[in-house]
Design a protein that fits this description.
Layout lengths: L12 H13 L20 E4 L8 E4 L1 E2 L8 E2 L1 H6 L3 E4 L9 E4 L1 H8 L4 E4 L9 E4 L1
Antiparallel strand pairs: 1-2, 2-4, 3-8, 5-6, 7-8
């Protein structure tokens, strides 16, 4: 999908300038692509031990396409509960997106199976978040 210069999904010149400057200051390369394309520098997936008493349960982080400061992490406790979750992936970005995962998807992520979902569209764009 290509970006419109005007219309309901366009971002203002000010929003673009602010996002560009923040990205440059963070050492991130800006790549202008269509919505949902892959980025040359997505976040890396990782797992970290949960602070809970379950011992072996780990948080799982996803890879975010066209990333500019967002982070997506499912907490180990959410994986154990295996309920549907809505993740807020703002991280260090100046705006938030949400990713909605069903209970089946959360169980799949806990089993280290690949799950990819599109985020909400905010500030005129969205992201694909992939967990493995």
């Amino acid at each position: 999908m290509s970006r419109a210069i005007s219309g309901p999904h366009a971002i203002s010149r000010r929003e673009f300038t602010v996002e560009s400057v923040l990205a440059l200051l963070a050492g991130v390369t800006i790549t202008i692509t269509g919505c949902g394309g892959t980025s040359s520098s997505p976040t890396s997936p990782s797992t970290t031990p949960s602070g809970g008493s379950t011992g072996g349960t780990q948080d799982v982080s996803g890879v975010i396409s066209d990333n500019h400061g967002h982070t997506a992490t499912i907490k180990g406790a959410d994986i154990v509960a295996a309920d549907a979750v809505v993740l807020h992936i703002q991280g260090g970005a100046t705006h938030d997106h949400t990713v909605t995962l069903t209970s089946d998807q959360v169980r799949s992520i806990g089993a280290r199976q690949r799950v990819s979902m599109r985020s909400s569209t905010d500030v005129g764009h969205d992201h694909t978040v992939t967990f493995n």
